[in-house]
Amino acid sequence: MVDRLVNSEANSRRIAMVENCFGSSGQPLAEQGRVLVGEGVLTKMCRKKPKSRQFFLFNDILVYGNIVINKKKYNKQHVIPLEEVKLESLKDEGYNRNGWLIRTASKSFAVYAATATEKEEWMAHIEKCIEDLLRKSGKQPPSEHAAVWVPDNEASICMHCKKTQFTVLNRRHHCRKCGSVVCGPCSSKKFLLRGQSDKPLRVCLQCFDELSKERVRPPNQPQTLTNSPSKPVPDTAGSGGDSSADDDDSEDDDERVNTEEKHDEPKFYGDGEKTEESNNHSSKESAK
């Protein structure tokens, strides 16, 4: 399917349209051999609350952004190489249904589709793209992935000390190793997590101890994580936030989406559209 769409005019138009929707806030997406496989809206579990995000699945990358004007404009573009992605299905719990995890070395998060059928379609198409990429490149899938952050509203007290109550003054923070919601004193250490950043990141005291032990492995064993000198992490101003939270989770999304509008099913571009395009081409040839 993907190979047949690589050089199609329809594929080129779709990619150009995606670029135009992000405007100057996004990076160019047109590359030789790149195909837009599908697109649609998924609910992304952010640290403060679930939010609608527009996702675009290409044969080599997954792109998503904030919806600024429904079906017309998006910003805060995120580009994830599919070779780094691992999917993990989530069980339905309460209102959180039809979800799965998107895991990478630098960031992991949960997304939810509107229906079970849409979840199956999304996961099947993403898995197929990953499989094709790894087969062509000969690479192995990544073995380590960033933790999924526990949403703020799931922790009213520190998940490490089990004592500190979160308030305007006692702010929530996230351990970058395990994803737990912790207080400032329980996350006063930093550690260099190579898959996530070139700079030391905030971790809870328990993860810091475990990572420090990992650092003193025997010389003949591989070492992937390096300790950085421990020091308190500055508690920057702002109520209830994390000093280094992802900008995708900020509250100033400026979303102007009509929530009462009928849900649009995701679009996946396949052989049917290619056949239609070929028929149109044949009709034009016949008319000559």
In terms of topology, how is this protein built?
Blueprint lengths: L1 H4 L3 H14 L13 E10 L4 E9 L2 E9 L3 E9 L4 E4 L9 E5 L4 E5 L3 H22 L35 E2 L6 E2 L6 E3 L9 E3 L1 H11 L51 E2 L2 H17 L1
Protein name: Pleckstrin homology domain-containing family F member 2 isoform X1
InterPro entries: PH-like_dom_sf, PH_domain, PH_domain-containing_F, PH_Phafin, SOS1_NGEF_PH, Znf_FYVE, Znf_FYVE-rel, Znf_FYVE_PHD
GO molecular function: phosphatidylinositol binding; zinc ion binding
Structure in words:
Residues 256-288 have a biased composition (Basic and acidic residues). Residues 35-131 form the PH domain. One of its GO terms (molecular function) is zinc ion binding. By secondary structure, the protein is of the alpha+beta class. It has helices spanning 2-5, 9-22, 116-137, 205-215, 271-287; strands at 36-45, 50-58, 61-69, 73-81, 86-89, 99-103, 108-112, 173-174, 181-182, 189-191, 201-203, 267-268. The strands form 3 sheets. Strands 1, 2, 3, 4, 5, 6, 7 and 12 form an 8-stranded antiparallel β-sheet that branches. It has a two-stranded antiparallel sheet with strand order 8-9. A two-stranded antiparallel sheet has the order 10-11. The chain folds into 2 domains: 2-145, PH-domain like; 149-233, Herpes Virus-1. The two termini are 29 Å apart. The protein is built from 5 helices and 12 strands.
